[in-house]
Amino acid sequence: MIADFSSLKDSLSVGEELSAMKEPIDVLIHNAGVFLKRRELTGDGFETTFVVNHLSSFVINYLIKDKLKSQEKARVLMVNSEGHRFAVWGIRLDDLNWQKRRYSGLKAYGSAKTAQLLGMIIFNEYFEGSGVTMNAMHPGAVRTGTGKENGAFYRWYKRTIVDRLSRSPEISAEALYYLGVSSDLEGIGGKFFNLTTEEIPAPPALDTETARKLWLESLRMGALKDGSL
Ligand SMILES: NC(=O)c1ccc[n+]([C@@H]2O[C@H](COP(=O)([O-])OP(=O)(O)OC[C@H]3O[C@@H](n4cnc5c(N)ncnc54)[C@H](OP(=O)(O)O)[C@@H]3O)[C@@H](O)[C@H]2O)c1
Q: Could you tell me if 157 and 99 are in contact, meaning their C-beta atoms sit under 8 angstroms apart?
């Protein structure tokens, strides 16, 4: 299935197609993400970093949650980031679109990754005891195309400085493989791993009250019909 995850229509149709599939989904990895130095809006009018890093995976997870539960066994992994810690003061539910504040690429990235971790709290409540687990991970500081959407100066800085300090993405792939199939992780959900080492996320990513509010807001933004679990 080919989709542009900045388009809610595309994310909804992927979620619907996956939920209608007869085959089980054993492991689902949400990998898509963007880091944008400048504020951009999607065709739906939402801030792009938030949509690609959080809302698209939220919509898909929401639409397939019943299928996964009925399978009684599945793992969902989210490629998140230590960058969620950039949202030092948490996410602003009243300004997810960055209209009331000066946009910052790092803060928007941190907020979107925090949003994904907050969504994970509620999904894991739903999956509790069902054999389905959802975890998030930081893939390491690795040499990829990340940031390629930004201007020439950023791309030069990334190529000449960041990439030299970064490692091969093979380490991320190995970690994802372990988290996806290892029996060590059987029944373990709602955790954040730096590669394969469990870590405690930043406090804003553990705030259940905000998680519940964000859940409702994400349903509204995704135009998802049923607001209850
Ligand atoms: N690299 C790092 O050091 C690092 C550190 C922490 C976290 N991460 C996270 O790791 C994940 C993978 O990023 P990466 O480092 O591999 O960067 P990347 O090379 O830029 O890859 C980003 C991935 O997201 C996909 N994507 C971006 N926008 C999309 C959209 N609108 N619709 C569908 N797919 C879209 C890209 O698809 P296309 O290839 O088709 O564009 C690509 O597969 C991201 O979630 C990122 O936040 C990376």
A: no
- In the residue annotation, 103 being an active-site residue is answered as no
Q: Is the pTM of this model over 0.70?
A: yes
Domain boundaries, the chain: 8-221
Question: Whose Cα sits closest to atom 34 in ligand 1?
Answer: 32
pLDDT in tens, 42-85: 999 999 999 999 999 999 999 999 999 999 999 999 999 999 99
Residue 35 CA, ligand 1 centroid: distance in Å: 9
Give the distance (Å) from ligand 1 centre to CA of residue 34.
6
Q: How far apart are CA 114 and CA 211, in angstroms?
A: 10
Give the other-Cβ count within 10 Å of 128's Cβ: 11
Is the domain spanning 8-221 CATH 3.40.50.2300? The answer is no
Q: What is the torsional sign of CA 43, 49, 54, 60?
A: positive
Q: How far apart are CA 12 and CA 6, in angstroms?
A: 11
User: For a pocket test of ligand 1, which of 29, 52, 144, 163 has the largest count of ligand atoms closer than 8 A to its C-beta?
Assistant: 144
